[in-house]
Amino acid sequence: MSTDCPILVWMLSLNREYTREEYNACHKVVDDCVQHIKIPYDPPNADSFRQVMTHMLPLLMMRHRRIPRAKWRDCITPNGKHWIEQTPDDMPPEKFLHSMIGYHLAYETSLCGMAMTQGVQRKVVNIGLGIKHVATEPRGVGVKAYTESMAHKLTPTELTLLAPELGDEVALRRLCTILALKQAYIHAIGQPPGFDWARLEFDVPGETARGDGHPLQGWEFRIFRASLGVARNLAPAGAPERRDVLVEEQYQCVCAFFRGTKESTFVWHETAKDLESWVQFINIDQMVKVIPKLTA
C-alpha cells in the first residue's frame, strides 16, 4: 500500500445506553466546537446521540495530535467534502501544503466511524467510509426477502453473487460488503443521497468495480469487519428493573480512497492484527472521559 496519504480510521462503539448527563455534555461540546453542524437537542433520540458522538471524532483526533481547537478550522468543498486546515504559524509553506486532513464520518446502529488521511487538499478529500450492520432489516426478516428489498441498489451480476445456494450467512455477508463498498465510494466522491446505487457494480469475489459500465480506476478499497459487544436492555417496556444482556453485533466496513493508480485495489483486513496499525477502536466511556480536553 502507498505511504502517500496514510489512512487512519477511528471506530466508536456505542456499547451501552447513554445517560441524559452524558448526552448533555457531548451535545454541548459539539455545539461549542463544531460550527458547521447544528444537531437539534433531543436527549431521548438515539439517532441524535449517534450524530453527536460521530461529530466528536474529529475533535478527538485533533486532540490526539495535540493541536488546540483554536489552531485549526473545518473546511468544506462545494460538494460537501470536509477537510481540516491547521493554522500555518511557523510551518514552512511546503509542510503547510501537505498538512491538510481530509475526513469522512459515518454511523450505523451501534457503530460510529471516521476515516481520515493527510496530504494536499485536492487528494485528501477523496475519502469515504461505509458501515453496514450485518443483519436483516426489519429484524427477523429472512435473508432472501432482505436481499430482494435491496435489489434496486444492485446489478444483475451482483444478484448472482448472492445466490441462495451459498447459504444465508455467506449471502448476507456478501450483500453487506457490496452495500458498504458502494456507500464508501459514493461518500468518497461526494454524491448526494439520491444517487442511484445500481450505477455501480462490485464483483466482490473477482475484486473488480465498475461505474456506469466502465472500470473504476485508481481506487483503494480497504475492507474490514468490526465485532462489538453491546449491552441491551431486554426488560419489557415499563418494567421497574433493567435486564441488560450483552449482544454481539457484526459490521462490514469499507474505507474508499482515490490514489490515482492505474488499477483499483481491494485490500482485505481479516484479523485484529491487520487492523491495529490503522484502525483505533474506542467506546462511550473513553469518549466521555476526554470531554474536558476536547475544547482546549
TrEMBL record:
It comes from Mycena rosella. One of its GO terms (molecular function) is holo-[acyl-carrier-protein] synthase activity. Gene3D superfamilies: 4'-phosphopantetheinyl transferase domain. InterPro entries: 4-PPantetheinyl_Trfase_dom_sf. This is Uncharacterized protein.
